[in-house]
Design brief:
Elements lengths: L1 H7 L1 H16 L28 H24 L4 E6 L8 H14 L4 E6 L3 H6 L1 H8 L11 H11 L3 H5 L10
Parallel strand pairs: 1-2
Length: 177
């Protein structure tokens, strides 16, 4: 029992804590153990998690989303809207913890003037996830370009599109547009 060890042998308990968290301070998980050069109070903040290894990606995503959530509450109290753009939004679906957090955050954010924009070229993954479909159904605006035949059918079913509406999801957008 750690609590008893802490009371009876505080030095041994402190050594145990130090060993347990050493990898987060100077080991393989020490990525966040330094001052950031990012001004989180700037009007626009870009958080790039591309270079995080797979062990740290979930932690990085949750940390970034929590930062946005805190900013959202602060902005709401000041009467401001918070805009969140997530490129490759399907990457949030790689771990149950991130998609669970994000889907609740997406729905909650609407009450606090959060405008979320999820950008993806891989909607199959998004549409196959229950939480992904809930994100879509909790959105006020969708823009769809060039979909595969299978994806077009999934969009049509999910959104209950008419034949005419489905016709607007076409090949008119060229790569890079």
């Amino acid at each position: 029992d750690f609590y008893n060890l802490l009371l009876e042998q505080p030095e041994a308990a402190a050594k145990g804590i130090a060993l347990r968290y050493e990898r987060h301070v100077k080991g393989s998980f020490s990525f966040f153990n330094r001052r950031s050069n990012v001004d989180l109070d700037a009007p626009m903040v870009n958080i790039d998690l591309h270079d995080l290894n797979s062990d740290m990606k979930v932690f990085g995503m949750l940390t970034a989303l929590e930062q946005v959530r805190n900013r959202m509450y602060q902005n709401f109290a000041e009467g401001k809207t918070t805009w969140l753009f997530i490129d490759e939004v399907q990457s949030l679906f790689g771990h149950p913890a991130t998609i669970s957090y994000f889907s609740r955050f997406w729905a909650e954010g609407r009450k606090f003037n959060l405008i979320c924009t999820g950008i993806t070229q891989n909607c199959t993954y998004l549409l196959s996830h229950k939480d992904g479909r809930n994100l879509i159904l909790n959105s006020d605006f969708l823009m769809l370009h060039r979909q595969s035949f299978a994806d077009k059918a999934k969009w049509s079913e999910l959104l209950n599109l008419s034949e005419q509406e489905e016709g607007y999801i076409d090949e008119s957008v060229n790569p890079g547009d």
